[in-house]
Specification:
Radius of gyration: 27 Å
Structural class: alpha/beta
CATH architecture of the largest domain: Alpha-Beta Barrel
Mean pLDDT: 93
Shape: globular
Helix content: 25-40%
Largest sheet: 8 strands, parallel, barrel
Distance between the termini: 47 Å
Low-confidence stretches: none
CATH superfamily of the largest domain: Aldolase class I
CATH class of the largest domain: Alpha Beta
Number of domains: 3
Number of helices: 18
Length: 671
């Protein structure tokens, strides 16, 4: 099922960014809580702020998706379960997940949560999409390294919604397969702590380069084609960005999506491009093209270069401007050879000990404060003053408690139950006329009973079923019925504690988690006859279908696979065994449970699994686990990386780049 109208989806690293997105015309936002999301450096939300924002979004007819998209270790499952039980009450429109274990947890113990598979799951072909649909996922956020002709086929063959990125930063690695940050910086990208070593300079045979620094995506040119394909959601990247970036990007794409008759005139395109140019300054590309993705001669920091550090002392830094800098701008200091650097909001500027508000190109000013920088560091502007939504964010009303309604309606009688209140039943006798042309609809009744709900309550979901012949429903009478229902419901809800549902859900999950423990040992890696690679392009799926069919006919029964697409490729073959290997990441027992239920007989541990978490994982895993004998590359990419051979990172770590003919991707290894 695909939306007829493309959803415009914006990033929200904090409430201010969410409100900027809505002000600019976004249909939905995605954001994260303080744990278990892939942008731990974003400000993120607590449950109270998130609940308030969800209520506000829903009051405006907008949607909110929550990122729950990091890998979980065994000792984190209980905390994750507690958070999921909170989210049932908060009722975001969907949960964006990376860890397969979270899919199982949500479907089995928290089934009211809608699931979208994160781009971190690395789904890149229609077989993988169908596998996700079989697990109960309702939308797949595709891998970003997909050419348009493959994307078009995947969308056409998909049984569920497809979401794609249309604007913002790109990762050099295929999603979920980058271990570079964990290896070089001690911060795992799959655990939400990427330090962006791909933006650093490396010594290569061709000199010092930024060989992993990707261009940014700008989808203005391909927007009409994406809409024509039937893509459900167009996603703007940037939960680390400020409200100014969010507002400009959203407004630019809103202009284009709302073009009269769908026609993108030169004037509309110019207006949108002007906004987008003011939001970022990296070199850009309109869609994935292997030969054009990397800008190896240019430092890859996002934002615009606006100055250079000329001197530093214990009181601050002296900066020479190359572009205009305003008080209140969000800036980042970056070493000349790239890297993460440090970001800050410019709270004060001084010229000859006089406070100033604006620093013009060519001028110099002193920035008071404590900075980790040295002379020649670069100053980048990553956010502009003038987009302040802090007062609106502070004014959001407190979050409400949700209830679920079950309604049965007919021309003569209406009934409604509240799922959270066993035994509660509201009934009303009615006399509605048969419908000649416009019968009452479920959506009409659901919206009617969900609007104007007295605080502190809200309707999480309203299920409506009809009995008898269709009838006509006047709007005024629907309001009367709603008022009568809520008058009785509010009395009954006085004795209801919303935390009861949370406690019950969490206790059920916690008891199940504790009850499946028994001591187990690691096993040797099982033998296999054929390995199905972790990456198979949409164009190569038919080749692999033939290869697998021929291998099966020749007696092959034992397969090893690094992607969920293997489940689809093998589903019609009887009596086969399937072993899971990276990039399927087994870091917890819930993931192992899902793999077993999906048909895997054993699985390799994730290369990122800490040794100290292994005993508890072994105790709870229902699937035999092993350590893979094969080394794992630190990064893999469809982008044309160069030069092949040895690279040296600034810390002295030696790397080696080579092309893998089997997966048809570039792989960067630790030498």
């Amino acid at each position: 099922m695909k939306r007829k109208i493309c959803e415009l989806l914006a990033p929200a690293g904090n409430p201010e960014c969410a409100l900027a997105a809505i002000d600019a015309g976004s249909d939905a936002v995605y954001c994260g809580l303080g744990r278990f999301n892939a942008r731990c450096r974003a400000e993120n939300f607590d449950t109270e702020k998130l609940g308030a924002l969800i209520d506000f979004m829903h009051s405006k007819g907008k949607r909110l998706y929550l990122t729950f998209n990091t890998l979980l270790f065994e000792d984190e499952l209980e905390a994750a379960g507690e958070m999921l039980s909170d989210l049932v009450q908060l009722a975001p429109d969907a949960l964006i997940v990376h860890d397969p274990g979270v899919i199982r947890m949500a479907k089995k113990y928290f089934p009211s949560l809608t699931l979208h598979s994160s781009t971190q799951m690395g789904i890149h072909n229609s077989a993988g999409v169908r596998a996700m649909a079989g697990m109960g996922v309702e939308r797949v956020i595709l891998e970003r390294q997909l050419p348009l002709h493959e994307l078009e086929k995947i969308v056409r063959r998909s049984p569920i919604e497809i979401e794609v990125f249309i604007h913002g930063s790109l990762c050099c690695s295929l999603s979920g397969r980058c271990l570079l940050s964990a290896e070089l910086c001690g911060g795992s990208g799959n655990r939400g702590c990427c330090k962006q070593p791909c933006r650093r300079a490396f010594d290569t045979e061709q000199g010092e380069l930024f060989p992993l620094s990707m261009r940014d995506l700008n989808g203005v040119e391909i927007l009409p084609r994406l809409r024509e394909m039937g893509v459900a959601s167009l996603k703007i990247e940037g939960r680390l960005r400020g409200p100014d970036y969010v507002w400009k990007c959203v407004h630019a794409y809103r202009i284009l999506l709302d073009a009269p008759g769908g026609k993108l005139t030169p004037a509309l395109i110019n207006e949108a491009v002007t906004l987008l140019n003011a939001a970022s300054a990296r070199s850009e590309i309109s869609s994935f093209a292997p030969e054009k993705m990397v800008d190896a001669r240019r430092i890859g920091v996002f934002g615009r270069e606006v100055g250079t550090v000329k001197n530093i002392n214990r009181k601050g830094i002296l900066v020479k401007a190359s572009a205009k800098i305003h008080l209140g701008d969000r800036l980042r200091l970056v070493p000349p050879d790239g890297g993460e650097g440090m970001s800050f909001s410019l709270a004060a500027m001084e010229d000859r000990q006089q406070k100033i508000r604006t620093l013009r190109p060519g001028g110099m000013a002193f920035f008071p404060g404590s900075f980790s920088a040295t002379p020649d560091w670069l100053v980048y502007k990553i956010g502009e003053n003038g987009f302040d939504f802090s007062r609106q964010a502070a004014a959001l009303p407190p979050r409400k408690n949700g209830v679920t309604l079950e309604m049965e309606v007919s021309a003569n009688r209406w009934q409604c139950k509240i799922n959270e209140l066993p035994g509660f039943l509201w009934e009303e006798e009615t006399e509605f006329s048969p419908a000649a042309n416009h019968p009452a609809e479920a959506e009409q009744i659901s919206e009617g009973f969900s609007s104007g709900v007295p605080a502190p309550w809200k309707v999480r979901k309203c299920h409506v079923s009809f009995k008898g012949t269709p009838f006509f429903l006047p709007g005024a009478l629907l309001k009367n019925l709603r008022r009568a229902f809520w008058e009785k419901a509010l009395e009954a809800l006085k004795g209801y504690d919303p935390d009861n549902e949370k406690k019950a859900l969490f206790e059920k999950f916690s008891a199940a988690l504790a009850g499946n423990g028994s001591k187990k040992e690691m096993i040797p890696e099982p033998p296999y006859d054929l390995e199905i690679p972790g990456f198979i392009s949409e164009s190569d799926l038919p080749l692999w279908e033939k290869k697998i069919s021929a291998a099966f006919a020749g007696g092959c029964r034992h397969f090893k696979a690094g992607g969920f697409h293997a489940l689809e490729l093998l589903k019609d073959l009887p009596d086969v065994t399937l072993t899971a290997a990276f990039p399927i990441s087994v870091t917890n027992s819930q993931c192992a449970e899902l793999l077993r239920e999906s048909g895997f007989s054993a699985a390799a541990l994730s290369p990122e699994l800490p040794e100290q978490t292994l005993p508890r994982l072994l105790e709870h895993s229902v699937l035999p686990l092993f350590k893979s004998a094969d080394p794992v590359p630190l990064l893999v990419s469809r982008a044309k990386l160069a030069p092949e051979g040895e690279w040296v990172e600034r810390s002295g770590v030696q790397l080696f780049l080579a092309f893998d003919d089997k997966e048809k991707i570039w792989k960067l290894w630790k030498k």
